[in-house]
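Give me structure tokens for this 75-residue protein.
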Amino acid sequence: MKTNEFDKRFDEGRDISEHLDLSRSRRPGQEHKRVNVDFSVWMVRLLDKEAKRLCVPRQSIIKVWLAERLERGNP
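Here you go.
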């Protein structure tokens, strides 16, 4: 398929996924890096309590709260 046909299909909102190789695709700035963090027992208890209340994993709570704080920036 030529570029202009590909662009036309995309602009029309048609499905072009069959023409893409997504096997090595990535989202810049969204790559993951695993880190280990030690928390006090009382913090883990409170994190677990909140995670249970929201029906989400503990990791989700930690990631959301950290992201919120980092997006606000430093005072």
